[in-house]
Each structure stands twice: as structure tokens, then as C-alpha cells.
Amino acid sequence: MSKGQASGIMEALWGWPPPVLDPAGPYASSVTTLAWGLLIMGLAVTGVVIAALYVAIKGPERWRRKLGGEKAVWIGGIAFPAVVLTGLLVWGLALTTSLTEPITGREARVRITGEMWWFRVEYLDSAGRVIVRDANELHLPLDRPVVLELRSADVIHSFWVPHLSGKKDMVPGRINLLRVEASRTGRFGGVCAEYCGGPHALMGFVTEVHEEADYDRWLAARAARQAQPVAAGAIPGRPGEVVRDPAEPQRYDPARGWALFRDTGCAACHRIAGTEANGLAGPDLTHVGTRLSLGAGILPNHRGTMMGWVADSQSIKPGNRMPSYDRLSAEELGHIAAFLEAQK
Amino acid sequence: MIERVSCGSCHVIPGVDWPRGRAGPSLEGFDDAGLLAGALPNTPANLAAFVRDAPAAKPGSTMPAMPITAAEAQDVAAYLYGMKDE
Ligand SMILES: [Cu+2]
């Protein structure tokens, strides 16, 4: 992939320091400590093996005899690994107990469902009711633990934000709980870490960590929008706010985009809160205008990518479950993109 | 510039690894093309006008207008002409 393109997958897997060695929260820290421990042990053992090899080939006769003796096998081949591996196991388990700390019930809850090949995201209130439906991105408050309920709608996926935690599988018919906490604001990429067929390699998402007060405001605003019915004849979202660069050709109209959205059949797979668009086969588009990525963490979100995705998502993400709309004209694509940009 | 508005989501463009969409024609070796989009003479001015607002420059074109300024469109045109054929 290229220079300059924001992509959740790239952010999750690349960068310096490598994301796995750059924890942004307490649960990731213990994993990072363990990773360093294993790396150093691994290097030490490799060093010993190389030294032994050298002795075996070029060392003095007396040493070679010792190395070839039965005692060396007992010590080096059985006692040493048994002690070291048991030690590592105990240390690793002790270090990662925090990952399985019991849930207190006071944490914020977010349900994330792996779908082929994107992530459904639902924010829950304390009673477990869904208050905000979203997709392909997770917003978190700073320094506050959040419990993720990981599920799958089809096959096994795995949820992984290297900066924040270890991997956790999303298994059909099960709810796996994963506690995450961020100690630094910013954006962190995530990926599906379990091969799930087709465009699995293009299944990612973006995590954004906000200051606590900003997060509360953000969630309240989204919950309010989601609870709000859209009057018949009105255009959902904020069509008045579609970015109008004075220099830009101003030909695209969110109102016509909304009509096309309904007539073209998008509404059968996509939901826009408060309207008759209530399809659940694809990502919720109520907030797609502010989405941090398109196509599940693979494209930046702006006019060009929006039109390109709708026109031919199959060439960008081959095999994904949204058909390409190559029969739409340029004008129609522009109207639809302007409409989707207004969904905030 | 080409990356900021992701022309790549519809075109294969040399020097842009990702995305490599196929809704529009590949732009490789495109400066040798005689007619732009099969209709306009292939000149820098026409190209700049086309990449900014294709439906206005060539009625019926299937490439939508892009949210870029006239100056940016000239930069894009310059890049497309500057590409080496491979
Ligand atoms: Cu996957």
C-alpha cells in the first residue's frame, strides 16, 4: 500500500516503534513486557546453542567430550528447558492475569460483531440496550476501562488492536469479553487476525481514544441522533453542512442523493437511523460522513473514495458483499456521495 | 494531490500502489493517448478541466466531478503527463 493513505490496517501493523512494542494502555503493557521477556530469553538460548555448536566443532577435546556426555544431555536437554519453560509459563500467566480480571459491571460496554468482512459496532447502556449503532471504528474514553463483547455473525474472526491488547477470537455462538483501556489519546489501527476467507486481509478498523469529557459529549450526540426520527420528506443528516469549497464544482445535491439511495436499493442493506433505510446486511451509515475510514479500515474517507467505493467496491475489495454500482452515472455517484457526506 | 482525493479508487495509476480501482480506465501510458476520454484533444488545459469536472468538460462522461481547485487540477494534469511509461 502506499504513502500518505490512512489505513487502519497499515496503522495496526506498521510504524516505528512497531505497534506491538508500543503499548498505549495497561493491558497492552503486560503483553509487551512478556514479548520482550520472550525475545530476550530466545536470544539467550540461541546464543548458548551457537556457543555449544562452536565448541562441538572447534572446541578443545576435553570440552567436546563433556558436551557429548550423557550428563550434558540431562542438564541441557531436559533439566534446563523444564525449569526455564515452567518459569516462563508461571511468569506469563501472572503477568496476564490482569487481562482476565473479572468484569465489575461498571465499565462502559461495546458490542463488536465480526462480519465477513467488516465490524459491526454497537454501544450499549448500563442495561445492555443498544444506544448507538456504528461500524468499522471504535471510540474509547481515556483512562477508563471498557468491556468489549466480541461476537461473530458467520465464521471465526479475531479482534486485534496491537496498541491496546492481545488478540481475542470472535467465535460464532459465543460472547468473548475483552477489557481494553487506553492511557494515551490518538488513533490506533486494528485488524481481523484470524483468516476468515475472501478479502480477510482487507478487514480492519480504526480506534480513536478521546479525552473523557470529549468522549461523553461524542457519545451523547450520537445517541441523540440515533434516537431521533427523521420527518417524512426531510433529508437525514446535516445536508446543509456538506463541505462546500468555494472553488469546487458545486453540482451535487444531498437531496437527490437521498432519493437515489432509496431507489437504488442501498437501503435494503444499510441503515440510516430514523428513516425507512433499515437494512442490516451492511454497515450502519447513520454516521458515515464522519467515518474515519471506508471499506473497513482500508481507505481514507472523502469524496473520491466514497464515489469510487460505491461505483466499484469489487475492484477495491474483491469479493466483498456489496455489489459494484457501475451502472450509476457520474452525476448520480456525486449526489450519493454528497448525501453520504452529510450523514454525521 | 492524487492521493488526497484518491483518484486511485477508480483508476490504476503508475506510482500509486493503493488503491487500484477499475471503475475508470488505467492511466498508464496515457499521455500518448490521442483523445482524452475518447472525446477531447489531449492537451494540458483540457486534461485539467476534465479531471476537475469531467461531466462539464465532456457531456455524458462517467467520471464524476472531483472536489479540487483549478490550480490543483493543473498539478494533477502535470503529474499525469510527467509519468514515465513503463
Ligand atoms: Cu478475518
Automatic annotation (TrEMBL), chain A:
Protein origin, superkingdom: Bacteria
A GO BP entry: ATP synthesis coupled electron transport
Keyword presence, Glycosyltransferase: no
Domain called Cytochrome c: residue spans: 252-344
PROSITE patterns reported for this sequence: COX2, COX2_CUA, CYTC
Transmembrane segments: 34-57, 72-94
Main location: membrane
Coiled coil start-end: none
Catalyzed reactions: 4 Fe(II)-[cytochrome c] + O2 + 8 H(+)(in) = 4 Fe(III)-[cytochrome c] + 2 H2O + 4 H(+)(out)
Intracellular or extracellular location(s): Membrane
Record-level GO cellular component terms: membrane
Pfam families: COX2, Cytochrom_C
Family per similarity comment: Belongs to the cytochrome c oxidase subunit 2 family.
Name used for this protein in its record: C-type cytochrome
Organism of this sequence: Pelagerythrobacter rhizovicinus
